[in-house]
Inverse folding.
């Protein structure tokens, strides 16, 4: 490649111009290789890894078996969509189930099991269903399955992770075998997008046994061992003609990042996520593997709760936020990929992002001031981190060094990825979360910041925020709705018990034989929906 000695951004720009010209151009692999050589970072990287497409469009091929490795698993893994807790669960759920809608690459809801969503007021909805769908057990898909699937979220015995969202569903009823009526507690124009998320995938009417999955999805569940693996086999009765392409997917976790990379390079697995940015050159130097970046609204966040959190110690929270060196964290913990965050969860690319909110900067003087007001004294504070929360170990080490400069001792306690989400997340005064992107601002706020939400990580409660959340859902004036979402971002930024230094890009590593994989803003592995879209190039 004649331009491979150009520095960083100049090399990247040259590659992109060449790729847009005639002839064979450059594949995504070429652009990635150039990026690795030129150490292109941040905004440049975000556009390049997704901006270059293969010069040779291919027709999907049918057949073959792949192995896919994620980073996390535990005995709490579940095939119940209502209880899904991490992206390993979500991927399995999209293998075996469908939703009423699905989200495309622009996060626009498209019809799936539903043929149409109609409403005049965003309060009452008429949903018409497909008639050509059967479950894996051969039973036809009907309105009774939708009514049961949506209503079960509000049953305490279900222990749904989406309870706070599902409480909007005041009444869900069947109007014939292929029509469902939904009445909400208050208007919400985002309903079709909300129902596209994994928690609201459709199960059989009356389903209570999730030792295996009985869905309408592209694959049937041949085996499921929580914390070990699942085996998915092609659903020959799938309602989408020609899909899925693969015969079988074995899905499991390799928690150690180096071992995950080695497995890919050795050909033992065909697709992995996540890939640390530091590992990209190793992958690109292999003849048999490549990488793909998906810029997302996901983030790894510092979580402060209990005696260190916003309810009991707001000064400590502010001290830690000012102690986040965001540019350094992005550069060293995330390899320069992603975009800077501002301690609120709506990414800069989102249409409701509050661009006018002043950026909180790294300021040790302010951090020390608030730390003294917090009355922490000369004690060591445990900071729990794990590879399961992407980048959190590096973040913890950088924070530890900054803390030393203002007399704060952070004792990093690194815990295994295996079981992190069930045994450690939200169970320590100071730790980390890793939140996946969500399709709407309402859903992000409802799941993680509403006072009664099961995943309200810091235990923050704010009546004004809750009122704005409810009002914004039903606001049909776009300018007013944006203002409400902006006010909510300010409340989280100033008072919430989390620190968000940056928004992550998700990087997949995959065999060059694996085709059909494309970026998705919900996250890696095509927003967890890769299974029905990918195929093997023989």
């Amino acid at each position: 490649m004649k331009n491979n000695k150009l520095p960083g951004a100049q090399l990247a720009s040259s590659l992109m111009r060449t790729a847009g010209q005639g002839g064979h151009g450059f594949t995504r692999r070429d652009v990635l290789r150039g990026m690795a050589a030129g150490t292109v970072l941040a905004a440049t990287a975000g556009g390049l890894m997704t901006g270059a497409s293969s010069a040779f469009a291919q027709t999907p091929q049918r057949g073959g078996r792949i192995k896919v490795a994620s980073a996390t698993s535990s005995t709490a893994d579940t095939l119940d969509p209502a209880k899904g807790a991490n992206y390993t669960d979500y991927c399995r759920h999209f293998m075996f189930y469908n939703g009423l809608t699905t989200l495309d690459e622009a996060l626009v809801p498209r019809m799936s099991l539903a043929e149409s969503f109609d409403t005049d007021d965003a309060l009452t909805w008429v949903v018409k269903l497909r008639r050509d769908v059967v479950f894996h057990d051969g039973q036809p898909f009907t309105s009774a399955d939708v009514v049961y699937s949506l209503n079960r979220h509000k049953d305490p015995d279900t222990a749904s992770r989406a309870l706070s969202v599902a409480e909007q569903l005041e009444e869900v009823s069947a109007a014939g075998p292929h029509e469902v009526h939904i009445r909400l507690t208050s208007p919400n124009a985002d309903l079709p997008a909300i129902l596209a998320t994994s928690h609201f995938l459709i199960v059989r009417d009356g389903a209570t046994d999730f030792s295996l999955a009985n869905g309408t999805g592209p694959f049937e569940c041949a085996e499921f061992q929580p914390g070990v693996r699942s085996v998915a086999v092609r659903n020959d009765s799938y309602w989408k003609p020609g899909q899925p392409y693969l015969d079988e997917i074995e899905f499991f976790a390799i928690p150690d990042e180096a071992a995950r990379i080695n497995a890919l390079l050795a050909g033992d697995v065909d697709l992995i996520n996540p890939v640390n940015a530091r590992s990209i050159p190793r992958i690109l130097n292999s003849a048999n593997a490549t990488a793909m970046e998906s810029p997302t609204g996901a983030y790894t966040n510092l979580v402060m709760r209990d005696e260190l959190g916003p309810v009991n110690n707001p000064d400590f929270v502010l001290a830690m936020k000012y102690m986040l060196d965001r540019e350094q964290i992005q550069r060293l913990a995330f390899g320069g990929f992603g975009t800077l965050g501002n301690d609120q969860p709506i990414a800069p690319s989102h249409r409701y992002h509050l661009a006018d909110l002043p950026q909180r900067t790294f300021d040790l003087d302010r951090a020390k001031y608030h730390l003294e007001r917090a009355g922490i004294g000369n004690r060591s504070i445990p900071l729990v981190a794990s590879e399961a929360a992407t980048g959190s170990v590096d973040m913890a080490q950088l924070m530890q060094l900054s803390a030393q400069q203002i007399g704060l001792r952070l004792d990093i306690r690194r815990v295994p990825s295996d079981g992190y989400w069930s045994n450690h997340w939200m169970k320590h005064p100071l730790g980390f979360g890793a939140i996946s992107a969500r399709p709407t601002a309402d859903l992000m706020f409802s799941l993680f910041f509403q006072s009664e939400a099961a995943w309200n990580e810091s235990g923050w409660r704010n009546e004004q925020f809750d009122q704005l959340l409810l009002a914004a859902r039903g606001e049909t004036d776009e300018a007013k709705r944006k203002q409400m979402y902006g006010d909510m971002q300010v409340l989280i930024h100033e008072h919430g018990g989390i620190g968000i230094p940056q928004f992550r890009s998700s990087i997949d590593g995959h065999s060059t034989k694996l085709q059909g994989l494309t970026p998705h803003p919900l996250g890696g592995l095509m927003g967890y929906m890769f299974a029905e879209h990918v195929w093997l190039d023989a």
Residues 1-56 have pLDDT under 50 and may be disordered.
